[in-house]
Amino acid sequence: MQPVVVPPGADLPALSAAAADCRGCDLAELPGTRTVFGAGPARTWLVVVGEQPGDVEDRRGQPFVGPAGKLLDRALGEAGLDRAELYATNAVKHFGYRTGNGPRRIHQTPQARHITACRPWLAAELNVIRPSLVVVLGATAGASLLGPSFRVTRMRGRLLPGPPGSNAQLLATLHPSAVLRADPASRDEVYGGFVADLRIAAAARPAPVGGERGSPPA
C-alpha cells in the first residue's frame, strides 16, 4: 500500500485523475477493478454518498448505474429531486468482492481500513463542491463522515450537523441496496420510508435569489 496523496487545490477532474492511481488500500490490487469517482455538477447544493461501487459501476466506471442506482433514481423522482441536480459519489471508490462458483463477483462490505484510506478523497470532493446538504446512504457512508458510532436506524430521517469544518447538514437514510434486499412482503413499506427520507432532503433545497426554489445560482 502507498500513502494517499490528494493534490492540493485540485478541481473535480483533477481529483478524479489522481484517484485513478490511488493505491491506499488493498482493494486497488483486486484484478478487474478501477477507481469509480463521483459524478455530477461541481456546483450544487446536494451530494449523495453511498457505500462503494458495485459490479456494474466498476465495469462502467460510473457511480449508481446498477440496480441500486436505478432504484435511487426512481425514489429521487418520487421525492421531488432530479438526479441531474446532485453529485453522487461513494465513501469507498473501489469495488470489493469475492469470487463465487463461476465468474460472478460477489460484493463484500468495505472494512474500516478501506473507509479510512478513501476518506481524503471524499473530503476533497466535499471541499470542492461545498454542498448545503449531504445525503448519507447506509452505514459505510455514515461511518466515513460521522465516525464508527454512526447507526442508520438511530439517525435516519433527520437533519444532522456535518463533520467539523463543514457547513453542510447531513441526512441519513438507507442505502437503496437495502431496499432491494428487503423481504418482498415488506419491500413496499421499506421503499416508502426511503422516499419519505428523501422528501426531507427535497424540502431542504435552498431558495436562490429571486425566491424560487432550486439550485443555488452559479
Question: Could you explain the architecture of this structure?
Answer:
This protein is α/β, with parallel strands linked by helices and 218 residues long. The chain has a single domain, classed as Uracil-DNA glycosylase-like domain (Uracil-DNA Glycosylase, subunit E, 3-Layer(aba) Sandwich), CATH 3.40.470.10. Helices cover 37% and strands 13% of the residues. It has eight helices and seven strands, in the order αβααβββαβααββαα. The protein has a five-stranded mixed β-sheet with strand order 2-1-5-7-6, with helices on both faces. The protein has a two-stranded antiparallel ribbon with strand order 3-4. Helix 3 packs across helix 8 (187-203). It is globular. It starts with 11 loop residues before the first helix and ends in a 15-residue tail after the last helix. This is Type-4 uracil-DNA glycosylase. Residues 37-199 form the Uracil-DNA glycosylase-like domain. One of its GO terms (biological process) is DNA repair. Pfam families: UDG. Belongs to the uracil-DNA glycosylase (UDG) superfamily. Type 4 (UDGa) family.
Globally, the shape reads globular
Largest sheet geometry: 5 strands, mixed
Overall average residue pLDDT: 92
* Class from helix and strand fractions: alpha/beta
- Write down how many β-strands occur, each being a DSSP E stretch of 2 or more residues: 7
In the CATH hierarchy, the architecture is 3-Layer(aba) Sandwich
What separation lies between the terminal Cα atoms? 39 Å
Low-pLDDT parts are 212-218
Domain count, please report it: 1
- What is the tally of helical segments? 8
In sequence order, what are the helices and strands, one letter per element?
HEHHEEEHEHHEEHH
Pfam family, one: UDG
Family: Belongs to the uracil-DNA glycosylase (UDG) superfamily. Type 4 (UDGa) family.
Domain Uracil-DNA glycosylase-like: 37-199
Organism: Frankia torreyi
